[in-house]
Amino acid sequence: MHVQAVCRYTLEVRATTERIPGIRRILAAHLRHWKLESQIAPVCRAVGELLGNVVRHVPGDKTCVVELRWTGRRLTVSVADRGRGLPRLTGCCPAKGGLAAVAVLSDSWGTCATETGKVIWFSRLVAQPGNVPRTAHGPRRTVPALMSRPLSEPSHRPDPPDRPGAPAPAMGRTEARAASGAP
Fold first, then answer.
1. How does strand 134-135 pair with strand 3-14?
2. Is 157 helix (H, G, I), strand (E, B) or coil?
3. Which residue of 81, 148, 171, 183 pairs with 71 in a disulfide if CB–CB is 3.0 to 4.6 A?
4. Burial class (CB in 10 A: 0-12, 13-18, 19+), 45
5. According to DSSP H, which parts of 58-167 are helical?
């Protein structure tokens, strides 16, 4: 049995209307690197909607953490922010954007509260996955609940949820970790 790597990229940013296009370009570059070109348009549009919601609805500190996780079959994206209010899907009009657009652009999505705010995530099942780094052996791991830990101070990233107490990697770092078989 071979073990498949889980690729992960996180980026901590202060969300502003002017920064959203640049953030989308950064995410597109990582998706290209992971050979997920077909996912660029829907993922970048959905992330743009979530970041736009941070700009419009989160009072005060608009620092957020955007995370991409690629298991070889499923791409999961999350945006964690310091806003206390959990969003609701109030209508089903994706043309207006917001969570309705995210719902249409994903296979599944959700939100959860953290000690310092919330996380909104969505995932996409990739029909023809790209090449994912493979290793001959490694520990069995599962993809943990997304960003279940609170955001740290603005100058630091939270500990990776699957390695409590581990030092956080530098902001904007791509990681590949061993994971077994199915996501």
1. antiparallel
2. coil
3. 183
4. middle
5. 98-105
Q: Tell me how many degrees the CA angle 93-99-105 measures, rounded to the nearest 5.
A: 80
CA atoms of 165 and 171, how far apart (whole Å): 17
Closest CA to 140 of 182, 183, 179: 179
- Nearest CA to 130 among 70, 51, 62, 172? 70
- What are the tens digits of pLDDT across the range 48-77? 999 999 999 999 999 999 999 999 999 999
The set of residues, in sequence order, having a beta carbon less than 8 Å from that of 142 and lying 6+ positions away, is 162, 179
* Tens digit of each residue's pLDDT (9 = 90 or more) over 131-145: 544 433 333 333 333
Q: Residue 93: its pLDDT value, please?
A: 57
- The mean pLDDT value for 119-133 works out to 77
